[in-house]
Write a structure and sequence with these properties.
Blueprint lengths: L2 H7 L6 H24 L10 H8 L5 H22 L5 H45 L3 E6 L1 H12 L5 H7 L1 H10 L1 E5 L1 H7 L4 H6 L7 H15 L4 E9 L5 E9 L8 E8 L1 H52 L5 H29 L7 E3 L1 H18 L3 E5 L7 E3 L1 H18 L7 E8 L4 E8 L27 H11 L3 E6 L5 E8 L1 H10 L1
Parallel strand pairs: 7-9
Antiparallel strand pairs: 1-2, 1-5, 3-4, 4-5, 6-8, 9-10, 10-12, 11-12
Helix pairs in contact: 2-3, 2-4, 3-4, 3-5, 4-5, 7-11, 8-11, 12-13, 14-15, 15-16
Keywords: ATP-binding, Kinase, Membrane, Nucleotide-binding, Phosphoprotein, Transferase, Transmembrane, Transmembrane helix, Two-component regulatory system
EC number: 2.7.13.3
Protein name: histidine kinase
């Protein structure tokens, strides 16, 4: 605890000179009362003035000492009564002594109660100061008495709307800030502003204010003028070392009409604000990356139907350029071109749906048919790369619930990756297999005999923008995982016993999907 705050935290004490003089004054007064009561011929109850001595003793004695002082005053009263019998009548003197002893007793009770109340007050003050210093939040104790007087003066001058006046007149706000008086600052406040101690923090208060701080003070003053119980707002402070700190400033206003003592607390949110800014920047980067993924995905997915359109268009031209045009064959090519154009349109539409986070179309899909369509689209490329294709489709598998176009995209991506992985392999074999899985699942396995991957690379295989292929974008498998997981399925990779990799896709059967949807 700082020296300034320690002084502020203790209960008010008399000055040292007062502490030394008060017992002497009390003793002198007691002696004077005794002498006057004992030897004065006047018939008055002078001993009642011992009550003053008892009340004075509260300032320098504890409760036991006050009791002893009261007994001493009572003893002096009795001695004065016995000595005074020589000069006055018994009955009158006895009555005055009884009155004096009664006043001493009453004064003693009042003094004891005062001491008890003072002890409770000091304990409460000590606890409050302990909390004030030990809490980890920066707290300033402010005296707004002069600010309240200014508000009252403005009201008497006929200012109708103090809120608008504060909003429009920044000089009034600065004047109010100048009228505030900082009574104390806790250790957390000292650390926040980079001060040496509480006195340094209080003295340097004007240096921590920035234009942003003034605006927050204006809002705080408006809350005070409108009679609110509290205020909270974010602002910026400048430490005594010149460092900017973002803080959440709160004020608690007293419930009484005076509302002079105000507690201000400040929570340092600089790191939290920096984290929020970093998250916003990350969200912006994520949107940019998503846009890049979408653009790359469109090019990646539309490439296959466009290539098929080009091939069929060239074939159609060849049929038409013959001496005797083969119209039936040309018509068939044109039909395939239309079909591939529709497929490209479906791909773009599904990608647009993905960007809107729309649910895939849920229809019963025959995986054998989907695999057959995907293989037809890839057959030429598979042949061009000298890859032997093996199909092992299990009969009687249940349909899956999903989006036909998206599932075709997944299979085409897996086959493209497999073909490219075998570009330098001496043996090039691509195997597509389906089988029944556990718990109502249908499994698709795409196996290649390519170069494979190291074991430590497998967990990162589906990470966006991570690729082992020269010129690759690292998007295909990431897109595949997103589509499969959107269908309630799973995808993983495993190393083959020989060469290459196997991609395992597990999809829930249509009846299980419907059941899970009902349960969910």
């Amino acid at each position: 605890m700082t020296a300034a705050s320690s002084a502020a935290g203790a209960a008010p004490r008399p000055w040292p000179g007062q502490v030394r003089m008060l017992p002497l004054l009390a003793a002198a007064l007691a002696l004077a009362i005794f002498l006057f009561d004992t030897f004065s011929p006047m018939k008055i109850a002078v001993a009642v003035l011992y009550a003053i001595v008892i009340l004075m003793s509260v300032g320098f004695l504890d409760r036991r000492g006050v009791k002893l002082a009261a007994l001493g005053c009572g003893g002096l009263t009795v001695v004065g009564f016995l000595v005074g019998l020589r000069h006055t009548g018994f009955e009158g003197h006895l009555l005055r002594s009884v009155v004096s002893l009664s006043s001493i007793a009453i004064a003693t009770v009042l003094a004891q109660r005062s001491q008890a109340a003072t002890t409770v007050l000091r304990d409460s003050e000590r606890r409050w100061r302990g909390i004030f210093q030990s809490v980890g939040v920066a707290i300033w104790e402010e005296d707004f008495t002069r600010v309240q007087r200014l508000f009252e003066d403005l009201a008497r001058q006929g200012v109708p709307d103090l809120r608008r006046r504060l909003e429009d007149d920044h000089r009034l706000v600065e004047r109010c800030i100048a009228l505030m008086r900082t009574v104390d600052a806790n250790d957390a406040a000292v650390r926040l502003v980079g001060a040496a101690d509480a006195a340094d923090a209080i003295a340097g208060r004007a240096r921590i204010f920035l234009p942003e701080t003034i605006r927050t003070w204006r809002d705080l003053l408006i809350a005070l003028a409108e009679g609110r119980s509290s205020f909270a707002g974010e602002t910026v402070l400048q430490t005594l070392g010149g460092e900017r700190r973002a803080v959440l400033l709160t004020a608690t206003f007293p419930a009484d009409d005076v509302r002079s003592t105000v507690l201000l607390s400040a929570v340092d949110i600089t790191e939290r604000q920096a984290l929020a800014e970093a998250r916003a920047e990350l969200a912006h980067v994520s949107r940019v990356v998503t846009l890049g993924e979408l653009t790359a995905s469109i090019a990646h997915e539309v490439k296959q139907p466009l290539a098929a359109i080009v091939t069929d268009a060239q074939a159609c031209l060849r049929w038409l350029d013959r001496p005797v045009p083969a119209l039936d064959e040309a018509r068939a090519c044109a039909g395939r071109i239309a079909g591939q154009a529709n497929r490209a349109d479906h791909v773009v539409q599904r990608l647009r749906d993905l960007t809107r986070k729309a649910e895939p179309e849920r229809v019963a899909v025959d995986l054998d048919a989907v695999i057959g369509e995907a293989v037809d689209l890839m057959r030429q490329e598979i042949a061009d790369h000298g890859v032997a294709l093996h199909m092992r489709l299990a009969p009687g598998l249940p349909a899956v619930s999903g989006d036909r176009i998206q599932l075709q995209q997944v299979l085409i991506n897996l086959m493209v990756n497999a073909v490219q992985a075998m570009a330098t392999a001496p043996r090039r074999e691509l195997t597509i297999e389906t089988r029944g899985g556990e718990a109502g699942e249908v499994l698709i396995l795409v196996e290649d005999s390519g170069v494979g991957l190291a074991a430590e690379e497998l967990p990162r295989l589906f990470t966006p923008f991570r690729t082992t292929k020269p010129g690759g974008m690292g998007l295909g498998l990431s897109i595949c995982r997103s589509i499969i997981e959107a269908h309630g399925g799973r995808i993983r990779a495993s190393r083959n016993a020989g060469a290459g990799l196997t991609l395992h896709v597990a999809l829930p059967a249509a009846d299980r999907w419907a059941s899970d949807r009902r349960i969910g």
